[in-house]
Amino acid sequence: MAGAGAGAAAGGGIGGAAASETLGFATGGAQDVENFRTNLEAGYLPLPTDLTYEGLAKDYYFDTSSNATKPCTKLFCPLYSVGLSPDPLLGTPASSEFYMAVGLDSGMKAADFARKQLNLVVVLDVSGSMGSPFDSYYYDQTVQPTAGVPDEGETKKKIDVAKEVLAGIVGLLRPDDSLSVVLFSDAACVPKPLGPVRCADVDKLKEQISADVVEMGGTNFQAGIDAGGAQLTGCAACMEANASLVENRVVFLTDAQPNAGDDSEQGLLARIKALSADGIYTTIIGVGLDFNTQLVESIGKVRGSNYFSVHTPGEFRRRLVDEFDYAVT
């Protein structure tokens, strides 16, 4: 669970720093139950795989900060707390259950946090399903939400908001960072090979993303993974960089509905694991209500990987633009 002064972050890593002076750390793996809840609110029946133990448990925690005997000065400081709670069904003293919570505090201050130099590959899904609105199901056009997701612009196409976020990411990178942009549908292409941001025409790149990227075709997730990973594995400087100073990361913007290439969970998972073994870590941003949670749940358990599910344009921008430094750490 999250440590003192911190909320839990989906997929692990640093959590909850924005409103706190100190940082806490969330457990790794898949931790997002919001897709399940938002589907219910929108009038859809979620899949059983949308609800996971990790996803539910990360929303509930014991405050372990009061049990700290001295200030944390290390990167990780375990804290412990015990609790007694009546059984939620029986509610009698005789049915009370004991809990022990383990929290991870950190001596790192939020004000002192700085992400590493970044070798970043953004892989954008431009398949036909990305042309559907946030609040509808692309593969079941007969099903429409009964309530909708309360957010301005909720009917905006997923691809349009993804392009806005991609342009926002480009604007957040530093001159010493490196960037590549990969697009995939039936196959993958690399309109922006990996290279230093200081050598790129950032304004022109933003314009090209906005004007030239359109959705079409199937979803060959394998092609996206292979092309994105190759940008980093083929970069000798990236693979030889000091991991304590430089982060190699691939960020996928997708509704995760693979239907071409090797679309098996085992095959895609093996590719993400191979990248992780090479020190290349993955962030998956699941876009819309109908993204494939079962696939990203398994990927989210790979070392260094994380994922977020987003259901509205505003949430999408916040996850990857306003919280960018944490999403890539």
Automatic annotation (TrEMBL):
Coiled coil: none annotated. Signal peptide: none annotated. Residues 119-324 form the VWFA domain. It holds the Pfam family VWA. SUPFAM superfamilies: vWA-like. SMART domains: VWA (SM00327). This is VWFA domain-containing protein.
